[in-house]
Amino acid sequence: MPQKLIVIVGGTGRQGGSVARTFLSLPSWKVRITTRNPSSPAATELASLGAEVVQADLNDTSSIEKAFTNANAIFLNTDYWTVWRPFKASLDAEGKSYEPASEKAYETETSQGKRAVDAAAKIPTLERFIFSPLIDVIKASGGKYPRSGHANAKAWIANYIQTDHPELFKKTSLIYLGGYNDNPSLAPRPNEATGRYMFILPLKGSFRMPIINPSESTGKFVRALIEDEQPGTKLLAYDTYPSINEIVSNWGRENGKEADLIPITIQGLHEKVGLTWEHLDILSTLMETDDYMAGVDNYIEPSQLKSSKI
Ligand SMILES: NC(=O)c1ccc[n+]([C@@H]2O[C@H](COP(=O)([O-])OP(=O)(O)OC[C@H]3O[C@@H](n4cnc5c(N)ncnc54)[C@H](OP(=O)(O)O)[C@@H]3O)[C@@H](O)[C@H]2O)c1
Fold it and tell me: What are the NmrA-like domain coordinates in residue numbering (predicted)?
């Protein structure tokens, strides 16, 4: 059997790197990763494992079209924070508000996603297209919380596939990643006065938060979506799905420390911890809907995958 080719956009990142390493271990697949910098340590490491590394930038249509040539499968992950972080830092330094960073990052991520989707739709060999979105916070909150650009940009891209590329949509599956296991908002802070640790969160103790190690686990789920599942599958991908109370007690047990869930309002997080509405609108939506996948219909969870290899 001739090998198939998967092209991974964001192959040097956490999600894409996991997908690359998984497919490099499968004899039936060849792996091509895209990067803006083929000489970076992440790119050269994947090259040494056998990946074809091509220079491509989601801001440059022709580089992406070239990178997708002859692909049988494409994994697309877009990155909001690459644009948001440095722009916000420059605005902070000038004493300005952060909102223009969100506007610019939203505009950039949606344009990049559109460019990649348009390019994928032109590839005649393509059988499977996997995109990694987040929930649509505007839709899930009924328009109440419009400012989480990092989630809304990805939801826009997922919707664009369906509305503007019906043939590509027939080949598409979506992988919704759980919260990253190293997400700083889920990390406790020491309370100097008591010696205990505090998880300062606006979420109820009973709220269930799917958690994934993206660098380890994304690949096995993407493999299952490509090799085992029908296109059109929406998967919530996670390693564990604990409640916030369980996250706190598990952390305390694993680290031999006493830890507490310290409730805080969204306004309190904004004023005392300095989180922007970019981060808080999605938290408000999760809190009010009591659902990490608010607004997403008909998705499956890892236990519902056909594969016995997960
Ligand atoms: N934190 C969480 O709990 C959580 C949960 C779910 C989803 N997410 C989302 O995950 C996304 C980040 O994924 P990640 O963690 O895998 O990213 P990451 O490790 O930060 O890597 C970013 C990747 O994006 C690529 N990239 C950036 N700009 C690019 C451009 N202009 N053209 C082509 N490639 C570009 C980088 O490639 P090169 O630098 O090599 O070009 C790199 O491979 C974010 O958008 C975030 O919203 C986060």
Answer: 3-271
- pLDDT of 185 over the 90 cut: no
Distance CA 200, CA 140 (A): 24
Instruction: Please determine, for residue 234, whether its predicted confidence score (pLDDT) is greater than 80.
Output: yes
Q: What CA–CA distance (Å, rounded) separates 235 from 224?
A: 10
Q: Kindly tell me the burial class for residue 44, based on how many C-beta atoms sit within 10 Å of its own C-beta (0-12, 13-18, 19 or more).
A: middle
User: Would you state the structure tokens that stand for residue 65, as one six-digit string?
Assistant: 């079209």
- pLDDT score of 272 more than 90: no
User: Using an 8 Å Cβ cutoff, are 77 and 10 in contact?
Assistant: yes
Interval between CA 77 and ligand 1 midpoint (Å): 6
Cα separation, 64 vs 44, whole angstroms: 20
81 CB within 6 A, ligand 1 = yes
- 4-179+212-238+293-304 under CATH 3.40.50.720, yes or no: yes
Alpha carbons 102 and 84: distance in angstroms, whole number: 6
Domain boundaries, the chain: 4-179+212-238+293-304
- pLDDT of res. 75: 98
Of 9, 143, 140, 130, which is closest to residue 67 (Cα–Cα)?
Answer: 9
Q: Which residues pair with 74 in a beta bridge?
A: 7, 129
Answer yes or no: is pLDDT of 1 > 90: no
| Mean pLDDT value of segment 162-171 | 98
